Amino acid sequence: MVLPHVPPDFPLPEPEQHNEVYEGLSRDYARIGTLGLRHLSWSSIFPVGRRYPFMPAEATSDGWAYVAFFGRGRERKIPFRMMVLDSGGVCRLNMPCTVDSLDIAVRRNGDLDYSISVTEYRFVV
Which end of the chain is more exposed for a tag (fewer CB within 10 A), N or C? Predict the structure, then answer.
């Protein structure tokens, strides 16, 4: 699904590296650790029943369909793939994710304000 509105300052996180430092007799030693999982959070709107000029052509004006999409994935424990393209169409983020939290508020005009937090999902191979 294509989101109807992406905030202009959309975060593109880098994973944290879990390094450890050990104290030796004469000096300290560092062990390079594994990369952690990336986390993203953002807030925006899901329009309900209307199209706005800022919406991509592929986005739907049924905001409740987005809520249902995320809800189905959470209930079925299925990750979704998040892809972020820059204005030139170059893929800057392609990451499987799970939804940690999704908060919805209905505006007076019927549109939905939402806030979402996602975490990178790593498939076990």
Answer: C
